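for the recovery benchmark. tokens below, seq after
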């Protein structure tokens, strides 16, 4: 397929505000900077690299985009030792062998070896599925790309730069419809500059209080207005100075929502130090962090900010 054969996939959103509204309709509350990055990624047909702390909503953005765009979501979960065949394709060796044996049994003298390297014997993995997805195309999530190794990053360059891949037996395969591609990284290591140059970049930070409150209210409507506000305030202060220095990692949005669900399950109407300490294992996943959230700290965090600072 040539460049001219690849149909353009125009962005369905005519403005940044339209992106905000569409994502909100899918249950994702994006601030304007993030919505701008998404709008440009769609408009320019470029991959979007999201970096940020775990739990700030990087993966959820891809899911929400899939819903908002009515596109299939394909996910490539990266890990140390991920191989190309697990990301792109592999041959169905069992089916190929059966074909060759059947040809031999029938005495067929044609070039059997070339016959077995046909698309019908391909097992398609997420990258190839994304390139061959019919209109309107797919959303491809390359999740936690920082967990893969540098050779795998180099392998991704052709896809990220040109929306195509090369298969030795079949040649170059270009996208039927350019996939919307989201890469996420928790920055466990620095990514190669070549990968970053092929992507638009956005650092996704913890949300402001009002956005986090909106997320909690949307995801956990059973929580009372008072409880939702207390959760947003409490978690926001946990991440701020001087409290943040007591923990290895502050809770993300995912933990805030999960905490709200747990508190509702416990019939909690209002936060108090006892319930905070008892449920600290939902906010934190490290033993030292759970231990650091003491009764005294919880009491201090629950005070009105004016009172706590005086």
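predicted aa per position
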């Amino acid at each position: 397929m040539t460049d001219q054969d690849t149909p353009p996939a125009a962005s369905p959103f005519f403005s940044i505000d339209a992106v905000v509204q569409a994502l909100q309709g899918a249950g994702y509350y994006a601030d304007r900077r993030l919505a701008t990055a998404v709008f440009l990624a769609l408009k320019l047909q470029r991959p979007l690299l999201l970096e940020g702390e775990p739990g700030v909503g990087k993966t959820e953005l891809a899911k929400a985009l899939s819903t908002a765009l009515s596109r299939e979501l394909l996910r490539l979960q990266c890990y140390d030792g991920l191989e190309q065949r697990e990301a792109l394709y592999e041959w169905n060796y069992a089916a190929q062998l059966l074909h060759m044996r059947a040809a031999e049994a029938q005495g067929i003298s044609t070039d059997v070896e070339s016959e077995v390297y046909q698309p019908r014997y391909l097992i398609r993995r997420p990258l190839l599925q994304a390139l061959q997805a019919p209109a309107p195309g797919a959303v491809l999530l390359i999740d936690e790309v920082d967990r893969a190794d540098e050779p795998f990053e180099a392998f991704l360059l052709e896809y990220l730069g040109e929306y195509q891949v090369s298969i030795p037996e079949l040649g170059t395969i270009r996208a039927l419809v350019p996939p919307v591609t989201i890469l996420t990284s928790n920055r466990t290591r620095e990514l190669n500059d070549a990968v970053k140059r092929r992507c638009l970049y956005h650092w996704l930070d913890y949300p402001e209080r009002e956005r986090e409150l909106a997320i909690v209210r949307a995801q956990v409507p059973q929580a009372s207005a008072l409880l939702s506000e207390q959760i947003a305030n409490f978690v926001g202060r946990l991440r701020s100075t001087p409290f943040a220095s007591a923990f290895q990692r502050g809770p993300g949005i995912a933990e805030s929502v999960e905490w709200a669900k747990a508190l509702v399950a416990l019939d909690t109407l209002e936060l108090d130090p006892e319930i905070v300490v008892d449920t600290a294992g939902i906010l934190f996943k490290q033993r030292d962090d759970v231990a650091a959230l003491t009764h005294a700290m919880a009491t201090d965090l629950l005070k009105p900010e004016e009172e706590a600072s005086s």
